[in-house]
Amino acid sequence: WATVSDYQAVLSVNLLGMIDVTRTFLPLLKKSRGRVVNVASAAGRLAIPGIAPYSVSKYGVEAFSDSLRRAMRCFGVKVHIIEPGFFRTNINQPADVRRGLDRIWQRQSPETKEEYGEEFLQASNDAAEAAMENLRQDPVAVVDAMEHALCSTHPRSRYV
């Protein structure tokens, strides 16, 4: 149900912004033989219904980072990916998710609403709420992975 503008908004921040910042600093990174640490997501490996634009953007982060890693190897620049799992954050509060689904539903055509039916909307809301109950609370593992990627003598290419 996502529109092209939905994709553009997410891609602009999660992928194109990251690419722009990385490219801007590549000359300095090459000179210093530095490190790039990009944050992808588990949703960049496993597409999740209802958040397709986000998943697409994070697949892009994965592809860009893997390509950059190979291209920068000859310059001594290391590229690492952090793939946080699913954590409770301000972006995935149950009430906000329900409002977001309802907002997307409201902008659908009458034909689409009829095709899917109100039951589909309710099932989507129920599935989203159930998934949010399983979100991890403490993001310390993500912070530890970032610290290791930035400071370790032998960092891994990918932190899951």
Secondary structure elements and pairings:
Blueprint: H1 4-32, E1 35-39, H2 52-72, E2 78-82, H3 94-106, H4 110-133, H5 140-151, E3 158-159
Parallel strand pairs: 1-2, 2-3
3D structure, described in words:
The chain has 160 residues and is mainly alpha-helical. Helix content is 62%, strand content 8%. It is built from five helices and three strands, in the order αβαβαααβ. It has a three-stranded parallel beta sheet with strand order 1-2-3, sandwiched between helices. β1 (35-39), α2 (52-72) and β2 (78-82) form a beta-alpha-beta unit. The radius of gyration is 19 Å and the shape is elongated. The two termini are 29 Å apart. The model has no long low-confidence stretch (mean pLDDT 91).
Keywords:
single chain; 160 residues; mainly alpha; 3-stranded parallel beta sheet; 5 helices; 62% helix
Oligomeric state of this protein: single chain
| Count of extended strands | 3
- Share of helical residues: 55-70%
Question: What series of H and E elements makes up the topology?
Answer: HEHEHHHE
Number of helices: 5
Rg estimate, integer Å: 19 Å
Strand content: 5-15%
Give the CA-based shape: elongated
Structural class category: mainly alpha
Low-confidence stretches: none
> Biggest sheet: strands, sense, closure?
3 strands, parallel
How far the N terminus sits from the C terminus, by CA atoms, comes to 29 Å
Mean pLDDT across every amino acid position? 91
Trace the largest sheet across and list its strands. Answer: 1-2-3
